[in-house]
Amino acid sequence: MSAAAEVLGGGDGIDFGPLPETIDALLQEGVVAYRHDKPAADRVFRQALETAPDSLPVYYCLYKIHTYQGSLDEAKAIAERGTREAARQAGWPEAWCMWTPQNPIPDGAGRFALYTLKALAFIYLRRGESDGARAILEHLAILDPTGTVGWPVIADLADGL
């Protein structure tokens, strides 16, 4: 099984959290499709996004598959859009550089925003944009000093470049 298939699910479906049944069904369908028909998975995930643009797990699925496929421009655009939507839901400013530390690290949309910001730093690194990645990582160090969302792993990758 590929790393992407492991991330996107190995068999019995993925618990994406509380979602409308139709959106969960689309995400499960996309996960299954990803294993053998990546363009079909993209279409299904985009259908879910069009149907429920406030459903954060859809952004995760899309930026994840595009990152694994090396479609980094698309992954970046989706991760940025997902970060903005999560920030909106968390009641935060749209621009991540204006986010302030929360204690404790939030759950829900706030955690998703931080996690997706970490993913965006990784995408920037993969695109060869180390300055952009470092700016994000420096802000994540302020927002999440204990590394709850896993940004130190990406910082270690950046330091190794």
Describe this structure in words.
Helix 2 (21-34) runs antiparallel to helix 3, helix 3 packs antiparallel against helix 4 and helix 7 runs antiparallel to helix 8 (151-159). The relative contact order is 0.10. It is globular and about 35 Å long. The chain has helices spanning 3-7, 21-34, 38-51, 56-69, 72-90, 108-126, 130-143, 151-159. It is an all-alpha fold.
- Number of strand elements: 0
Strand percentage lies at under 5%
Major β-sheet, in short?
Answer: none
* Structural class assignment: mainly alpha
User: What level of helicity do the residues show?
Assistant: 55-70%
End-to-end distance: 28 Å
Mean pLDDT: 92
- Radius of gyration of CA atoms, rounded to a whole number: 15 Å
Give the topology string: H per helix, E per strand: HHHHHHHH
Shape: globular
Number of helices: 8
**In terms of per-residue confidence, which ranges show pLDDT below 50 for 5 or more consecutive residues?**
1-7
Oligomer: single chain
